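Need residues for this backbone.
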């Protein structure tokens, strides 16, 4: 039996999921404090500007006539910024939807190609493991708001990936099963890559 490293299967995939879940060196309390201080500074400066403007207008009522162009420019830039924000959010949502569709298609293809395996015991075991893997992926996205539960589910999914791959290598290692190996293993690899 070949070792997993010899088959070209990459085990580095869960690392990117861990990074996505926030396993990094960011000091979140300090970041929240900096955000709160920035918000307070903006509100304070806004109030200070309002008082300064009232004092200027009290001394010279004609001072407000030239601010229309500046206000229009500021609101135009704000509108442009909001438009770019929503556009970026829509593009990310659309990309995520596309990835979900690709992952579902890859899982369906892999499940169908498992029918090519001759040994019914290994075929049924692989189909059972792939169903467990799909359920684990569903549970992972359901638990995404709870970091520790999601990380535990990532561990389960990674263990299932390794087990599925090991059983698939064993089921297709005989030389006469070359065509099955060339169809089943890439489908499983694509399924794991899209995870």
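Answer:
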């Amino acid at each position: 039996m070949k070792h997993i490293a010899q088959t070209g299967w990459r085990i580095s995939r869960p690392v990117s999921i861990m990074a996505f879940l926030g396993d990094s060196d960011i000091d979140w309390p300090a970041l929240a404090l900096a955000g709160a201080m920035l918000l307070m500074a903006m509100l304070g400066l806004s109030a200070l500007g309002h008082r300064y403007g009232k004092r200027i207008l009290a001394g010279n009522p004609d001072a407000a006539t030239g601010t229309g162009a500046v206000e229009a420019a500021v609101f135009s830039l704000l509108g442009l910024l909001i438009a770019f924000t929503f556009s970026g959010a829509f593009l990310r949502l659309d990309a995520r939807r596309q990835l979900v569709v690709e992952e579902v298609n890859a899982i369906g293809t892999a499940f169908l190609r498992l029918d090519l395996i001759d040994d019914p015991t290994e075929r049924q075991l692989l189909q059972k493991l792939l169903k467990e893997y799909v359920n684990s992926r569903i549970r992972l996205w359901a638990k995404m708001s709870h970091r520790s539960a999601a990380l535990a589910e990532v561990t389960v999914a990674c263990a299932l990936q390794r087990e599925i791959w090991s059983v698939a290598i064993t089921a297709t290692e005989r030389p006469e099963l070359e065509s099955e190996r060339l169809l089943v293993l890439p489908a499983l690899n694509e399924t794991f890559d899209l995870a």
